[in-house]
Specification:
Chains A, B: Keywords: Hydrolase, Metal-binding. 2 copies of one chain form a homodimer. With about 400 residues, chain A is an alpha+beta fold. Chain A has helices spanning about 25-35, 45-55, 80-90, 110-120, 135-145, 155-160, 165-190, 205-220, 280-300, 305-320; strands at about 35-40, 60-65, 70-75, 95-100, 125-130, 150, 190-195, 195-200, 205, 230-235, 255-260, 270-275, 340, 345-350, 360-365, 365-370, 375, 380-385, 390.
């Protein structure tokens, strides 16, 4: 059997070009602090460094150094051409002159960063801004070179608001995510209850079979990392990041939370919950409540709204439906959403007392759980706009799965 | 068209159980140093923390604390049941008593680690061992709590030698990797030269089409993260970690370096190079040289052999075939291999002056490159044994791709 449940979006054959990073907010933070510069250290899987450099380099630490008007990437020599292409040639016109520095390649990234900073910095200052979680060895190299570290949230802040190019990346990943979900829904709809089993192509259906169908569908559209296909069934649907293997029984909640990563590092995030052969008990009540809370939360999303209000309104709706809020095990146990970008979880928090901004990309994902029964969550990924929100891609909300077209 | 080129291994339907981690080498390092304990801080994608805890928890930092006979994981409350299952219940009998600590959940991981260490440590010592790259903010919390940090390589050292359970994980991932390669080879064999194009199902073949075929095949066998399918064609075959999109022309080297990550975090790593419609020039000479160097390198792999010898012997073979060694652009530009485990690149280095040990898992991957023409690399993943090596999975070496069975 192949096919998708109805309502999945079409996807473009090709992924958009990599977004460019405007480094001027980092350069401005350096200038405002009167600092010599900013230093981030990490390797190609570190999200901040990936965002700042757009460099898909080695599995060894390298550094990004930014001063008030210049920026350097300390690439290993084997990767210098790739670094020139990705960091320098592809850069936007943001007033920050970029270069690749390959000297001292075999030395530690922190020492190389200190040397480059000595060379680039105009400011008469010993202060260097860094993310708080810079590797400790890199911090010590900077301190030994005479710098005093001061932590900055400038990168987190810059990442809060997405550009059009970032939205295009996120949208395509989310559209492919919807197609993965449509594949799972089609498989569930084709499965036949048989005693305690759901039979799919003659075999008892498991979450692992479902996961492989989802991941293969997404891979066929160019998603490169499908390592976050969380699927719970019955009681494991109450475990938030569960990726184990379970037998799926009729009448159980099957919760799929699909968060793949696209070629340029941006994530999708989509959750649906289905039940095959429900007898209309807890899971039906939970679904109705969560669907209402999801809609209520969405109506509160717009630029200028207080982020925490979105959570509170979802919680109020779930309370009105008789579900608990204050427990870590039963009811609505988590926040209503989080930002998504080159990290799966980033700002803004939807529990914070700060206003949402146009260009924030957030999940809206209320859920209720009972570890003895199951869990229901419904999640969409939306971009905040001046007067509301836009879904990055849309997929129907259905309790009973529908057959392939 | 579907199908695989001949010679791909069969794979078991299910992935093996997660390996357990013997924490006694870490506890011994604490005792030997007379330290209060060991602390690692990271989130679920940080390789050390994943290895130490086997916990697939949240996208927020947590800590693993180990003393001479106890160990604690500071899990967030939402994940305490999962932490108990994965860190405590699944632990081996290694003399280290494990527990999950959920107090102070909303505080920073470094402060929580310091509190747990205050509570667990017997030793009358202010020294705490940490990996050198512990996040700087966590290091500061530990220092503010009165501890003096001392960096340790105990975790890297423990990871050097794989257990039977780790070898089983690596072997299945590598077997699935071979099937991904077999899919790519079948597609290449089915492609028809047409002027400057290779036509596959009527369309000009690109590296992206090939990548999607590989990744979908691996996903269908339960590989969860196929984000490292490096494919170069012609000149981009000379770029080591290149994942861009290229048109594939007849006569060009097509280099596929496939490094997916399995469900428990272990990587596979396999490289083959094919040419469709070769006229027998540089690429044929390069292939013959690299195949000979690959075989020569393998004959030098055994427990007790000096690691660097493996590199030197491969280099000598390539020199004998007339290829350069000392350049960063032309010839043999990189090391002959590296360790693989829960990191794609880890110890041992095959350039080091230290003996190989039984249970090391290393790639053997000589290659030669000319940025104006292309690149050829052949790579297998092997476990070092007392009297030689064993491939974790085998796949034929062929220059001209062979059709699907």
């Amino acid at each position: 059997m192949s096919g998708l449940a109805p309502g999945a979006p079409e996807v473009a054959a090709d992924h958009p070009e990599p977004p460019q990073t405007d480094l001027s907010p980092i350069a401005d933070a350096v200038e405002d602090a009167g600092a010599a510069g900013f230093v981030a250290v990490g390797y190609r899987f570190a999200d901040d460094v990936r965002y700042l450099s757009r460099f898909g380099g080695p599995d060894r630490d390298y550094a990004v150094v930014v001063t008030a008007d210049r920026a350097a990437l300390t690439a290993p020599g084997l990767f210098d051409e790739q670094a020139e292409t990705e960091f320098v040639d592809a850069a936007p016109d943001d007033g920050v002159a970029r270069e690749v520095r390959t000297e001292g390649q075999r030395g530690p990234a922190g020492r190389r960063a200190a040397n480059v900073l000595d060379d680039l910095a105009d400011a008469d200052s010993d202060t260097v801004l860094t993310p708080a979680d810079i590797p400790h060895d890199a911090a010590l190299y900077l301190e030994n070179a005479g710098y005093e570290l001061s932590s900055t949230t400038a990168v987190d802040d810059a990442r809060l608001t997405k550009t059009e190019a970032e939205l295009a990346c996120l949208s395509r990943v989310q559209a492919v995510t919807c197609r993965g979900m449509a594949r799972a829904e089609a498989v569930l709809a084709a499965a036949e209850p048989d005693g305690d089993d759901l039979l799919f192509e003659g075999e008892p259906l498991t979450t692992e079979i479902l996961r492989r169908e989802v991941d293969a569908e997404m891979a066929s559209h160019g998603i490169r990392s499908a390592g976050n296909t969380v699927i719970g069934s019955g009681s494991t649907a109450a475990d938030l990041h569960y990726t184990g293997i379970d037998h799926i029984a009729p009448g159980e909640t099957v919760l799929l939370d699909i968060s793949p990563r696209g070629p340029h590092g941006y994530y999708g995030d989509l959750t649906r919950t289905f039940v095959v052969g429900s007898d209309g008990g807890w899971e039906r009540r939970a679904f109705v409540a969560v669907e209402a809370a999801h809609e209520e939360a969405l109506t509160n999303v717009e630029a200028g709204a207080t982020a925490g209000t979105v959570h509170e309104e979802a919680a109020a709706e779930l309370t009105a439906h008789g579900f608990r809020i204050d427990s870590s095990e039963v009811g609505f146990t988590h926040g209503v959403g989080h930002g998504v970008g080159v990290s799966l979880h980033e700002g803004p928090s939807l529990r914070a007392d700060t206003p949402l901004q146009a260009g924030n990309v957030v999940t809206i994902e209320p859920g209720v759980y009972d570890p003895d029964i199951g869990g229901v969550r419904i999640e969409d990924l939306v971009a905040v706009t001046e007067d509301g929100y836009e879904r990055l891609a849309s997929y129907p909300v259905r309790f009973t799965p529908v057959n392939a077209e």
